[in-house]
Design a protein that fits this description.
The chain is an alpha/beta fold. The chain has helices at about 15-30, 70-75, 90-95, 100-125, 160-180, 205-215, 230-245, 260-275, 305-315, 320-335, 335-340, 345-355, and strands spanning about 5-10, 35-40, 60, 80-85, 130-135, 185-190, 195, 215-220, 225-230, 230, 250-255, 260, 290. Bound molecules: nicotinamide-adenine-dinucleotide and thymidine-5'-diphosphate.
Length: about 350
């Protein structure tokens, strides 16, 4: 793709990965204009964008991706050429408690964006450099056993949770808009991300914050489930390459190459926290580990084969699990003013429900 000043729409840009991506793109491409559309659900937080929001290159719109007139207006008013689509309901545990919003945002919302973007692209004469980047997950591929080969781009979809099923539905729509209308869409499926601005109910920030507060570290089942962890900035660099060099109509798997059992990951977090966090209320923090009832339908193992993006686009993750974790945990230790306000009444109520459910 040619460089020059471009206008991007980043949906879900106040969430975890979307805000890391917005901050990354803002610094990497100082010419470009960023329009961020986010409904500011429990997971959206304007503090994630505090370093860039005051610049005239950045526009924030509070709104819903299911709102077609609003989306069309934004596309037209800001002459959008690229959509980086992150907005979603993203937490498996919440999808078990209340699946409805997952269908609405992930399926209907993605359809709305696709359809508005198609009309906008057609009105402009179908410019070939327009892009619709759909950020999806490895969870659409289902679950692996020990010894199974990692997921490739050709693995059949087999989603197991309402979350992954809703993301699978949205992926199919994105694919169909390429096949049917030749809209230049690309899908990325990535593994579990971690890093700064990660909402405190996901595994890594939850463990870190509970260690700082001296609270139990709840591990589902025996902690034997395996995830493949990817540092969020490595993910942003991969998305940058996909936008610039990826082939429309294609999909790319993005994994960290860091498969680890939950229990081993939590022990590593405890070890690093014991080393770097001052004045912990309980030490060694491993004493806080508490095994709780397993999540219903808990996928056993995810593992990604990232050889396509490595071979075709030259991507490599830069962080090891240990270096990425150290940087992340240090960020949470240094930024209590970011996470403390998020431990709200609503959060406590969610916490109560989820650990009762599992
Ligand atoms: P997140 O939950 O932290 O952020 C989602 C953002 O979307 C929030 O800011 C929220 O306010 C916004 N949003 C939700 N519903 C909306 C709506 N209807 N309209 C507009 N905005 C809305 O999620 P995340 O972890 O940053 O994930 C971003 C994307 O990456 C998602 O599509 C997710 O499926 C995908 N993904 C995440 C991971 C991960 O490990 N976090 C892994 C693979 C894929
Ligand atoms: P999570 O961060 O919710 O991501 P996902 O379910 O999308 O992979 O969880 C990561 C892993 O950690 C998953 O196997 C579930 C497990 N887990 C726990 O054992 N305890 C917890 O409190 C949480 C939130 C997750």
């Amino acid at each position: 793709m040619e460089r020059g000043r471009r206008n991007l729409l980043i949906t879900g840009g106040a969430g975890f990965i979307g805000s890391n991506f917005a901050n990354y793109w803002y610094n990497r491409y100082p010419e470009d204009k960023l329009v961020i559309l986010d409904a500011l659900t429990y997971a959206g937080n304007l503090n994630n964008l505090s370093l860039i929001l005051n610049d005239s290159r950045v526009v924030f719109v509070k709104g819903n991706i299911c709102d077609a007139p609003l989306v069309s207006k934004i596309l037209q008013e800001y002459d959008i050429e690229i959509i980086a689509h992150f907005a979603a309901e993203s937490h498996v545990d919440r999808s078990i408690l209340a699946p409805g919003t997952f269908i609405q945002t992930n399926v209907v919302g993605t359809f709305t964006l696709l359809d508005c973007f198609r009309h906008h692209w057609e009105k402009q004469g179908k410019p070939p450099h327009f892009r619709f980047l759909h950020v999806s997950t490895d969870e659409v591929y289902g679950s692996l056993e020990i010894g199974d080969p990692p997921f490739t781009e050709n693995t059949a979809y087999a989603p197991n949770s309402p979350y992954s099923a809703s993301k699978a539905g949205s992926d199919h729509l994105v694919r169909a808009y390429y096949k049917t209308y030749q809209l230049p869409t690309i899908i990325t499926n990535c593994s579990n991300n971690y890093g700064p601005y990660h909402f405190p109910e996901k595994l890594i920030p939850l463990m870190c914050i509970n260690i700082l507060l001296g609270k139990p570290l709840p591990i589902y089942g025996k902690g034997e489930n395996i995830r493949d962890w990817l540092y969020v900035e490595d993910h942003c660099r991969a998305l940058d390459l996909v936008i610039h060099k990826g082939k429309p109509g294609d999909r790319y798997n993005i994994g960290g190459g860091n498969e680890v059992r939950n229990i081993d990951l939590v022990r590593l977090i405890c070890k690093i926290m014991d080393e770097i966090a001052p004045n912990l209320p309980v030490k060694p923090s491993e004493r806080l580990i508490t095994f709780v009832k397993d999540r219903p339908g808990h996928d056993f193992r995810y593992a990604m084969d990232s050889s396509k993006i490595q071979r075709e686009l030259g991507w490599q993750p830069l962080e090891s699990l240990e270096s990425g974790l150290k940087a992340t945990l240090q960020w949470y230790i240094d930024n209590p003013q970011w996470w403390q306000p998020l431990l709200s009444k609503e959060y406590q109520e969610y916490y109560r429900q989820v650990y009762q459910m599992v």
